[in-house]
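Subject: design request, 97 residues
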């Protein structure tokens, strides 16, 4: 998946936008509010979606485009976003107290 085409990039970007939007605006799961925080989630979520298929596996053949498997990409995006936000919240709370 290193040399992906534009459509694969776009699919991962859409997955990241949707998952980040749900976490940021829907569940208010963020370190700081604001649009810049949302954009950083989109970037990190794209990396998680990109790593989703190699980490979680290549399954659900009907929901894939080339090497982008949708369900593992969603899981990877969600997992990395939750881990990063949780780590930043934990590190910032231990610094202040």
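Subject: RE: design request

Done. Sequence follows.
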């Amino acid at each position: 998946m290193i040399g992906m085409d534009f459509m694969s990039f776009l699919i991962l970007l859409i997955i990241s936008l949707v998952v980040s939007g749900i976490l940021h605006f829907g569940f208010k799961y963020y370190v700081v509010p604001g649009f810049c925080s949302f954009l950083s989630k989109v970037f990190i979520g794209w990396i998680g979606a990109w790593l989703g298929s190699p980490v979680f596996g290549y399954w659900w053949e009907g929901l894939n485009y080339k090497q982008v498997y949708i369900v593992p990409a969603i899981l990877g995006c969600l997992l990395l976003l939750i881990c990063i936000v949780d780590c930043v919240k934990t590190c910032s709370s231990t610094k202040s107290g």
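The two ends are 43 Å apart (CA to CA).
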